[in-house]
Design brief:
single chain; 4-stranded antiparallel beta sheet; 18 strands; 14% strand; globular; zinc; Aminopeptidase; protease; EC 3.4.11.-
Length: 739
C-alpha cells in the first residue's frame, strides 16, 4: 500500500524535534505512538491486542543515524541517501513500534548475556548518558532474575529526545526519554535528578516484560502496564541504591493516588474506554500510583516469594500475547491459594478508598469504615474488635507502615497518644508519614480541625527523615495557601510557626554539602531552604541572594551546587517586583545560557514563585514563546497565590493558542489543573465552568471536572476553618512557643 503522512510538530505520531548543533538549528524525526498514533505514521490495526511482526526499512540522509526497534541487518548507500534494513521484530503491538532519525553520539556497554545496551543523545552530551547506561545494564540482569525470563531482544537502545511530551516511552528495544529523565551531569545535576533518572530507566525497562512481552488486552487494563512498572521500578532502584531508602519515598506515590482517588470525579483502576480520545486522560495517578499501591498492598499480604513466583508464571504463560486484570489475579490465586480475584475486585473495579475510623470504648478498639469518594456511604463494617488497650499500650497505629491503600481517622484520645509517640520518636518512617498525611487529608475534608492539624505538625519539629519532612513541607505550603483565603489575618503568624518548625532541621544540615553525606540529606537541604525562603525567612533570603550574586559571575562556583539551586532561585524571586526586577532578568539570562534541560526546568519552576502579578504575566507569555519547548511550559504554571487571578485571566485570553499548540493529549490538561485547582470559592468554580462550557473537548473533560471539584473542596475547607473558635489562639501559641 502506498500512503503519505506529515512529519508533524505535535509530539505524537511521527514528528520532528529541533536541536542545535554547532550553532545551527537541526531537525530529528521521532515516533511516539502510545496510545493510538501509529495510525498517523502507517496504516495498521492500531489496537494493543492486534499484535504482528514488523519488518522496517528506512530511507534517510546518509549522514544521519537511523534507529528502530531491532538491529540493522544492512545499509545501502545511494548518493546522499541510504536505505537501512532492520531485522524482523518478534510479535508486538503497534504502539511499541519506534523509529528515530538524527545526529547522535552514544555510549555503549554489554550485559553478561551479550545484549548490547546503548544510550544515544545529542552530539557532545555522550558522557551524560553514562549513569543511565550503568543503571540499565544492571537492571536488565535484575529483571531477568526476578521475572525468570531473559530480556527478549538482541539489543536495547535508550535515547534522549529534546521535544518529548511524556517522561519516557518504553518502545520495544528503543526506549525514548525526555533529556531530564535520561541524562545526568555530575557538575550540574542535583541528587533529585539522579534519582529521577534511575527510577524512570527502571520503570521503562520493567515494561520490556510487563507491557511489551505481555501486553494489556485493551486500555481498560492500562494499569497492569503502568502500576506494575511503577511498583517494580522501586524494587530495582532499592536493590541498586539501598542507601536511598526508596521504599520510604514510595509513600509519595500512594499519597498522589489517594489524593486523586478521594474525588467523586476519580475513576476505578479498571476504567471503561470507549473512544481513542479518552485514553490520554487515564495516564494518571490512578493507573500509575494507585495501581502501584494496590500491588504493593497485595504483595505485602501474599508475601514477596509467593508474589514473585506468580509473576514469573504470569509472564511465561502470557508471553508474546495479551492479558487482562483477571489473568493476573488467577495466576496469583493458583500460586497463593488465596481468593485474590474476590479480594482485589473491590480495589480495581470501584473508585475511592476506605476510611477507617478508630476509637477506644471500654478498653476495646472499635473500627468503622466508609468509602472516601462518597462521604455519605457507610459500609457495613462496623465491628467491635476485642483488642484490649490498657495503659501498657501508650499508643496504637493502624495500617502499619502505611502499606494499605486507605486512610485512618483516630478519635481525640488516640490522636493525642500518637502525637506524643511522634515527639518521643517511637515510630517508623512509614507510620510517621501516614499519621500526618491521613490527618491532613481528613482536615481538608472537614473531618478534623485545622487547629488540631497544626498541633500535630508541631510534633515533627525534631524530625530528621527526608520522606517525612518532605511531606511536612508540602502540607505546610497547602495550609499556608488555605489560611491566606480563610483567615488572612493569621497568615504571618502561621508562616512564623512554619519557619520555627523547619529551622531545627535546616540548621542541622546547614547550607553547604558535607563530605560523605547521604543522598537523602542532599535532597532535603534544598527542600528545607526553599520552604524557609517561601515563608519569608529573612536570613535564608539574604544568604541566597549573596550566593546568587557570586554564581552570576562564576557558574562553576562551589557556593551554589546543583542541590541548592532551586532553593536559591526561589529565594531570589521572593522580593522581585516591577521596580526591582534584576533577579528575574538575571535568572532568565541563566535560562538562556544553559543547554542542560534539568537546569532549564528548574529555573521555570522557580520563576513562577514570584509574587508580583505583572512580572508573572510577563513570565506566562514567555512560557508560550519559542524560547520554551512546549513540553516544558507546564513547569512554570504553579504560580504564587498572589498571581493566581493573573494566571486564570491569561489562560482565558490564550486558550485558543494553547489548544492550537498542544492539541489533544495530556500536556494540555496540566494547564487546567495547575491554574484552576488552587482557587477556593464557589463563584470561581462557576466562572470556570461557564468559560469551558462552550470549549469542551473529550480529552479535557475529566481533568476539568476534577479541577472544579478541588475548588469546591477548598471552598468548603475555607468555610469550615472560619468556624474554628480557637484557631487564632492556637496559632499564636504554636508560633511563639519556646522549645
Amino acid at each position: 500500500m502506498e500512503f503519505e503522512g506529515t512529519l508533524n510538530d505535535r509530539m505524537k505520531g511521527f514528528y520532528r524535534s529541533t536541536y542545535e548543533h554547532n550553532g545551527q538549528k537541526k531537525t530529528m524525526a521521532v515516533t511516539q505512538f502510545e496510545p493510538a498514533d501509529a495510525r498517523r505514521c502507517f496504516p495498521c490495526w492500531d489496537e494493543p491486542a492486534c499484535k504482528a511482526t514488523f519488518k522496517i526499512t528506512l530511507e534517510v540522509p546518509s549522514e544521519l543515524v537511523a534507529l528502530s526497534n531491532m538491529p540493522v541487518i544492512e545499509e545501502k548507500l545511494n548518493g546522499d541517501l541510504k536505505t537501512v534494513y532492520y531485522q524482523e521484530s518478534p510479535i508486538m503491538s503497534t504502539y511499541l513500534v519506534a523509529v528515530v532519525v538524527g545526529l547522535f553520539d552514544y555510549v555503549e556497554d554489554r550485559t553478561p548475556d551479550g545484549i548490547i545496551v546503548r544510550v544515544y543523545c545529542q552530539v557532545g552530551k555522550a558522557s551524560q548518558g553514562k549513569f543511565a547506561l550503568d543503571v540499565a545494564v544492571k537492571t536488565l540482569g535484575l529483571y531477568k532474575d526476578y521475572f525468570a525470563v531473559p530480556y527478549s531482544l538482541p539489543k536495547l537502545d535508550m535515547i534522549a529526545i529534546p521535544d518529548f511530551a511524556a517522561g519516557a516511552m518504553e518502545n520495544y528495544g528503543l526506549v525514548t526519554y525526555r533529556e531530564t529523565a535520561l541524562l545526568y551531569d555530575d557538575k550540574h545535576s542535583a541528587a533529585a535528578n539522579k534519582q529521577r533518572v534511575a527510577v524512570v530507566v527502571a520503570h521503562e525497562l520493567a515494561h520490556q516484560w510487563f507491557g511489551n512481552l505481555v501486553t494489556m488486552e485493551w486500555w481498560t487494563h492500562l494499569w497492569l502496564n503502568e502500576g506494575f512498572a511503577t511498583w517494580v521500578s522501586y524494587l530495582a532502584v532499592d536493590s541498586l541504591f539501598p542507601d536511598w531508602k526508596i521504599w520510604s519515598q514510595f509513600l509519595d506515590e500512594s499519597t498522589e493516588g489517594l489524593r486523586l482517588d478521594g474525588l467523586a470525579e476519580s475513576h476505578p483502576i479498571e476504567v471503561d474506554i470507549n473512544h481513542a480520545g479518552e485514553i490520554d486522560e487515564i495516564f494518571d495517578a490512578i493507573s500509575y500510583r494507585k495501581g502501584a499501591s494496590v500491588i504493593r498492598m497485595l504483595q505485602s499480604y501474599l508475601g514477596p516469594e509467593c508474589f514473585q513466583r506468580a509473576l514469573a508464571s504470569y509472564i511465561k504463560r502470557h508471553a508474546c500475547s495479551n492479558a487482562k486484570t483477571e489473568d493476573l489475579w488467577s495466576v496469583l490465586q493458583e500460586e497463593s491459594g488465596e481468593p485474590v480475584n474476590k479480594l482485589m475486585n473491590s480495589w480495581t473495579k470501584q473508585k475511592g478508598y476506605p476510611v477507617v475510623s478508630v476509637k477506644v470504648k471500654d478498653q476495646t478498639l472499635e473500627f468503622e469504615q466508609f468509602l472516601a469518594a462518597n462521604k455519605s456511604e457507610t459500609l457495613d463494617v462496623k465491628e467491635s474488635l476485642g483488642a484490649s488497650v490498657s495503659s501498657s499500650h501508650p499508643w496504637i497505629k493502624v495500617n502499619v507502615d502505611q502499606t494499605g491503600f486507605f486512610r485512618v481517622k483516630y478519635d481525640e484520645d488516640l490522636s493525642a497518644r500518637l502525637r506524643d509517640a511522634i515527639e518521643r520518636k517511637c515510630l517508623s518512617i512509614g507510620d510517621k508519614y501516614g499519621i500526618l498525611d491521613d490527618y491532613y487529608s481528613l482536615s481538608m475534608a472537614c473531618q478534623q480541625s485545622l487547629t488540631s492539624l497544626l498541633a500535630l505538625m508541631g510534633a515533627y519539629r525534631e524530625e530528621l527523615e527526608y520522606t517525612v519532612l518532605s511531606n511536612l513541607i508540602s502540607i505546610a505550603y497547602k495550609v499556608a495557601r488555605i489560611v491566606a483565603d480563610a483567615a488572612p489575618e493569621l497568615l504571618d503568624t502561621v508562616k512564623l510557626f512554619f519557619i520555627n518548625l523547619f529551622q531545627h532541621s535546616a540548621e542541622r544540615l546547614g547550607w553547604d554539602p558535607k563530605q560523605g553525606e547521604s543522598h537523602l540529606d542532599a535532597m532535603l537541604r534544598g527542600e528545607l531552604l526553599t520552604a524557609l525562603a517561601s515563608f519569608g525567612h529573612e536570613m535564608t533570603i539574604n544568604e541566597a541572594n549573596r550566593r546568587f550574586c557570586i554564581f552570576l559571575d562564576d557558574r562553576n562556583t562551589p557556593v551554589l551546587p546543583p542541590d541548592l539551586r532551586r532553593a536559591v532561585y526561589v529565594a531570589v524571586m521572593q522580593n522581585v517586583n516591577k521596580s526591582n526586577r534584576s533577579s528575574y532578568d538575571s535568572l532568565l539570562r541563566v535560562y538562556r545560557e544553559t543547554d542542560l534541560s534539568q537546569e532549564k526546568t528548574r529555573i521555570l519552576g522557580s520563576l513562577c514563585s514570584c509574587r508580583d502579578p505583572e512580572i508573572i504575566h510577563e513570565f506566562l507569555n514567555f512560557l508560550l514563546s519559542s524560547e520554551v519547548r512546549s513540553q516544558d511550559a507546564v513547569f512554570g504554571l504553579s504560580v504564587s497565590r498572589d498571581a493566581r487571578e493573573t494566571a486564570w485571566n491569561w489562560l482565558k485570553v490564550n486558550w485558543d493558542q494553547i489548544c492550537k499548540t498542544y492539541g489533544a493529549g495530556f500536556l494540555i490538561t496540566r494547564f487546567i489543573s495547575a491554574i484552576v485547582s488552587p482557587f477556593s470559592s464557589y463563584e470561581k468554580a462557576e466562572e470556570v465552568e461557564q468559560f469551558f462550557a462552550s470549549r469542551m473537548k473529550p480529552y479535557i473533560a475529566r481533568t476539568l471536572k476534577q479541577s472544579i471539584e478541588r475548588v469546591h473542596i477548598n471552598a468548603a475547607w475555607v468555610k469550615s476553618i472560619r468556624n474554628e473558635k480557637h484557631l487564632a489562639d492556637a496559632v499564636t501559641e504554636l508560633a511563639f512557643r519556646k522549645y
